[in-house]
Amino acid sequence: MGIVLELEKITKIFPKVIANKDVDLKLEQGEVHALLGENGAGKSTLMNCLYGLYRQDGGKIYVRGEEVTINNSDDAIKLGIGMVHQHFMLVPELTVAENIILGLKSAKEPLLNLAAAEKKIKALSDKYNFGINPKDKVRTLPVGIQQRVEILKVLYREADILILDEATAVLTPQEVDELFKVVKKLTKEGKSVLIITHKLEEVMALSNQVTVLRDGEVAGNVRTVDTNPTELANMMVGREVLFEFEEKEMDLKEVYIETKNLKVVDKKGVTRVNDLSMKIHGGEILGIAGVDGNGQNELAEAITGMIPFQEGSVVIKGVEKTKLDVRDVYEQGVSHIPQDRHHTGLVLPMSIKENLVLTDHYLEPYSNKGVFNKDVVDEHGAEMIEQYYIKAPDAGVPTRELSGGNQQKIILARELCREPDILVAVQPSRGLDIGATEFVRQKLIDQRDRGAAVLLVSTELEEILQVSDRIAVMYEGEFMGVVKNGEASISEIGLMMAGTRRSNIESQGEVE
Amino acid sequence: MGEDNKKSLGFASRINWSGIVTPLIGIALGLSVGAIFIWSQGVNPLHAYYYLLEGSLLSWASLSGTLVKTVPLALTGLAVLYSYKSEIFNIGAEGQVYMGAIGATIIGINFPNVPAPLHILMVLVFAGILGGAFAFIPGYLKAYKGINEIVVTMLMNYIALYFLSMIVQGPLKEPDSFFPRSVPLVDTAVLPKLFGSHLHIGIVFAVVLAIFLSWFFRRTTTGFKMIAAGHNPNALHYAGVNVKMLLTKVMVVSGFIAGAAGAVEIMGVHGRLIENFSIGLGYDAIAVALLANLSPLGVLLSALFFGALKTGANSMQISTGIPVSFVYMVQAMVILFVVASKEMPRIIAIYNKRRRVKKNG
Ligand SMILES: Nc1ncnc2c1ncn2[C@@H]1O[C@H](COP(=O)(O)OP(=O)(O)OP(=O)(O)O)[C@@H](O)[C@H]1O
Ligand SMILES: [Mg+2]
């Protein structure tokens, strides 16, 4: 087979950080090569150098044995390199086909040749079982499908070296399985794949070889068959990561948050949350499992006041309301870790310390009569960076310059440092490395132990099972069942996620 | 636009070099291309520029003339900058200035018995309210209905322009006068002059406002919210801020400043309402804000630059025959170059690449 791609002593220096230092990497043809490393280890930067988005400051890149200079993504594409980015780069208002041909020359230049493109896309989509309609507007597609569009975009350009940067972070388990099938098919065809992921089981299941980065340097390179998750975690973090949380019998406090027959209809008239009632006591974590897009996010946004609800009511600490205001809810002690950090959670061009006071900016001690206390805000920034292990040169750098995982930690720091009574956390560990994921889950448990009511929305069943006291499974806007953690088997939960009510499962007797 | 400048607001102490260098490059290039034009007219560009400089800055008489022109440019430039910080493009400063001028006249020709400082304040506030109310319409439409503010403000400029014409030929017209103009303001509403020249106290207003805004955008929560709203309104909504209300208010305040700028022109320069008294000021102000890279203190300098161009143009025309309209060409070119030079790093990268390819190939 042979080596299709070789990176030799790649170094990339940003004004205040050395993101990559003398990184070597060899990609064998027809193989999957996993790139592992903590948040901010330099994975995305390395791939961006390879894809021509950054120019490396030192080192060489060889493609199929020849040294190449890659100045921009056009160069990369010409060399057969394609990349699916950690944060998608699709234009929501355009159709799938339009997105895919964006930036390409058409055969009928200067006219578009959309029909031909659509045909080719349809053929590709069929070949890999993507089930994509080229005429759909990207805006209307769920995340999992959007990602397939990104992959199609790369395949359309006839790439044979694919880079997938945290491709699985936003996918449901089923979607991950589908993606893996695609990747396997691609490698069978002789294409080579570089994947970045934080999930060790995925590395074990999919890759042939692993390179681990730590603080921008290669910490190890092994064949997957010769290693195991514990060793990989050790290489990455420098310690063992256990995901063992202390079980604690909590005395439940009174109900902190409750919904009564809540109904949320979105702008298009689709019912997202349907007649939903639930209660969460202080001192417990209710985990909401379910396939992405079944109304979990709308539920979270409705009870935090971000979107209106049409029927029913929300009771926060005994006060029942049929209409909520974000600021009001916030002042009742509700913190919200939103689903999408770039869309909602952060103002990317602004500094870390400014983002850290985004929700609290109007309160003392951060400001006084509308004027910031600069020193307090500065200090707070420095403190949070330390407490939440945010990897950044200082609190004054724009949030945009941080790695994805470290951006997420800013939101966590902001929402948890105020010790909320009620925490609504949507995908809180999305994009975090294993060390940080463990840290976040521990933080959720700490909130509960402090007596807070926690609503955790996650499409990762593992996360739900690890930390929840009770589990609700949501399907098409309704709870299929609510169980104590441990009461239902994983396959029962799986059935509920697919839309079977718990009562039906029981009446069918043993399912295991 | 102004990206570099905006992200380092808040509490950053870093000096924004590109924000200083870029405008200087723009000016240098604008003047260079202008020089070619002058030369093609058979005039030595150095001569022409010397007269431009002499007529605008080198004597007290010319400098004070320049400063008089600087005041409305700076004040209106700050009005444009204010809404620009939230990514709202107020092309309507022009119309808001007119509305302010009308308001200023209504108050300024009445109330002869009020003490001068109070009278001036009343004029400023009332003019500001009219300007703000006029800006409320596009602001509300933008924030609550999603209607493009550029189109609305631009069209509303015509409403203001013709409304002003109507007013000075009708209700506010000086009886028995041949010209379309109002009666003079009462003495208490005329801005005091400085150093025995035409320069009036409006220059102090402009400087104070620029310093205030510079502090405002760096240190206040409202300034913070405004900038954040420009970058990511969703995040601000998530943070519990009523973004629609905020953006509407931003537009109203922008209009208030523009309206007050119109009042300063009436009180400081003309002493009465005159038809077409400030044609194009609102558009020049956009150039001023752009050249300043959206820095409030920078607005003072860029207003001074444009003020000097306008003032020096006359002496250049008298001495060399280069027409006054030449400076408008330079003004436009400077802005083009400033906008273009933000793309410079990218262009250089492409150029380098081409060269490398040539060498290798
Ligand atoms: N444009 C930039 N300017 C300055 N520093 C940057 C920039 N991009 C990345 N960095 C820094 O380089 C380092 C590596 O970042 P990178 O995004 O490559 O990490 P990563 O391994 O992909 O992390 P994650 O798993 O969180 O996505 C980080 O310290 C980051 O702050
Ligand atoms: Mg990354």
Summarize the entry for a quick read:
Chain A has 512 residues and is α/β, with parallel strands linked by helices. Chain A contains 18 helices and 22 strands. Chain A folds into three domains: 3-237, P-loop containing nucleotide triphosphate hydrolases (Rossmann fold), CATH 3.40.50; 245-333 and 421-512, P-loop containing nucleotide triphosphate hydrolases (Rossmann fold, 3-Layer(aba) Sandwich); 346-419, no CATH class.
SS element count, helices of chain B = 15
Number of structural domains of chain B: 1
Oligomer: heterodimer
Would you tell me which CATH topology of the largest domain in chain A applies? Rossmann fold
Q: Give the CATH architecture of the largest domain in chain A.
A: 3-Layer(aba) Sandwich
- Give every kind of bound small molecule, once each: adenosine-5'-triphosphate, magnesium ion
* Helix proportion of chain A: 25-40%
Q: What is the straight-line distance between the termini of chain A?
A: 44 Å
Name of the CATH superfamily of the largest domain in chain A: P-loop containing nucleotide triphosphate hydrolases
Structure annotation, total helices of chain A = 18
- DSSP strand tally of chain B: 0
Give the class of chain A from helix and strand content and strand pairing: alpha/beta
Number of beta strands of chain A? 22
The CATH topology of chain B: ABC transporter involved in vitamin B12 uptake, BtuC
Rounded to the nearest angstrom, the distance between the terminal CA atoms of chain B is 37 Å
Percent of residues in helices of chain B comes to over 70%
Overall radius of gyration of chain A:
24 Å
Overall 3D shape of chain B: globular
CATH class wording of the largest domain in chain A: Alpha Beta
Rounded average pLDDT of chain A:
89
